[in-house]
Sequence to fold (466 residues):
Amino acid sequence: MSRTVIRGGLVVTASEEIHADVLIEDGRIAALAASGTPAADAFTAERTLDATGKYVIPGGVDGHTHMEMPFGGTYASDTFETGTRAAAWGGTTTIVDFAVQSVGGALREGLDAWHAKAEGNCAVDYGFHMIVSDVNQETLKEMDLLVEEGVTSFKQFMAYPGVFYSDDGQILRAMQRAAGNGGLIMMHAENGIAIDVLVEQALARGETDPRHHGEVRKALLEAEATHRAIRLAQVAGAPLYVVHVSAREAVAELARARADGVSVFGETCPQYLFLSTDNLAEPDFEGAKYVCSTPLRPREHQAALWQGLRRNDLQVVSTDHCPFCFAGQKELGRGDFSKIPNGMPGVEHRMDLLHQAVVDGRISRRRWIEIACATPARMFGLYPKKGTIAPGADADVVVYDPHAEQVISAAEHHMNVDYSAYEGTRVTGRVETVLSRGEWVVTEREFTGRAGHGVYTPRSTCQYLD
Fold:
């Protein structure tokens, strides 16, 4: 029996803040007791961690990553080993990555391929969503089987014709199946057919720079697709989770539907909260570093996203971590923005950037934990095993120094990518020590974990539904 006690910290969860000592036993939270009380003083352990002046928070749950993701003739530069190590450095102890069905292939083939990539390589725990690229009768039957074994969410794309795209009929069929088996449809909501027309027209005019990526993927086409996805979900009687919401018009569609009682949820990402089209317009092709889809928006959209988080019209902040190196990967799109691999690095910095939002007064401490830990755990069927600090939960615990200052830089980060999207950004707050199922994976700013500690974690269905 292995025991650890974390003493003297401010335990922050989505529901409460309390100065408490935390007893960890055999990889799980065994007990909490107010610091300085006889109950806390009675905790004994082989290892004691002094968290005085620090926060003790649940490990982050990043519900949207793409490790080793094939895209545009190349692969995301982070492997499951490097990506989960970087996640741990940033205080994230669970990722849910996306297995990909190839067109013409079975869901099972895609899922097995992703299991093979991840197994034995992860520093922290992981689960899978399933990207459904080819809706047919066999695929629909497989969705039932995957839900039974803990892959309970399925992503579809209204974007990328010829790659991942599903038409409205395919989307409706998948939603109808999810309504029956308890699965959750995750939607990339952009009108890809219309966007492709605008891409073709922009290139014909000689508009080839990265900034044009943001100009052709119009906010109105995100809003239109969001509206259409909501209506299709209503017709199917299925819940809907809209990924990487970036535009204020799309937030408005979600807010309107939620006000009408529709089971629709929204996710945004740090890049939309902290970056903008100003980055896409950086000279000398530097803007390519910021090409992702949905794209970065003009800065004035950020206020609507923060308001959406405060009002719970947006419930989750994930990263959509899908890194491509500037040299040799992003550069594939020199002279043609449509050939720039879509994706940005971020898995290491989500918790810190959101803590900066606490420092700046945009969100509360508890809301920070809610949108980064508890709600993604509930959304994807991992709570209370993940996402909280309570007896019985996995001992995924972060000791966080709210006063330490740091400057985000590619020279310091641990992601396998040659630039930082937040280069030079000063933030207050830093991860100090990270435990994953009771094992010390980051110890006072030193990585002490190992590939293979992280295990596959089957999930129940969305816990926000009846």
